[in-house]
């Protein structure tokens, strides 16, 4: 039994190797094609070519001359021949400057009296009109018209006045609803406030005598201070005179 198992394992390994070799089997390269008439072909194209067109002269076929070397700026292209310039536009141009080779004409004389001619020209000349250096502001186009900023300011003022009038009119009915407090009621209210202030003041003085204060006593003391300040402000208002209530 063991022999058969070993044989089967050996067969499996052989098959695996064969399959692996079959997968990785690289094909052999074919030989390059070579004509059987390779040596018998006519080499005509070599005869038509120059002696050194492709690879240059053979070694030792050319010996440079030691006296011939590259001269400075021998490879730069020369300047073009000068030619006459003509403008393309038809505008009038000044006469050309005389050439250096032109010779001036000598010996020209004139019988004209330039002094008398200048005097005659000066007497016949008309003086130019002097330009006015002073600016006349009355000749401006906008002279006499109100400036634009003034119109805007006036419109803003009128709008503010209109808004104030509307605000006053809206407050008039509220003023009419307010009633004047009578003298008896004002005096009675004033005496009551003063009595309340005295009572609160007495309580406040009693709270200040204690050495140890609890949180409740501190809160009560602060409330008494606020209440006494409110009553004092009310007393000041009532003592001024007329009082209006809604």
UniProtKB/TrEMBL annotation:
Tell me where it mainly resides: other
- Mention one GO molecular function: calmodulin binding
Keywords, sorted A to Z: Cell projection, Cytoplasm, Cytoskeleton
Domain Enkurin intervals: 151-246
Q: Where in the cell is it found?
A: Cell projection, Cilium; Cytoplasm, Cytoskeleton
Read off the Pfam families from this record: Enkurin
Q: Which InterPro entries match?
A: Enkurin_dom (IPR027012), Enkurin_domain-protein (IPR052102)
Q: Which GO terms describe its cellular component?
A: cilium; cytoskeleton
Q: Which PANTHER family match?
A: ENKURIN, ENKURIN-RELATED
* The protein, known as: Calmodulin-binding protein
Organism expressing this protein natively: Spironucleus salmonicida
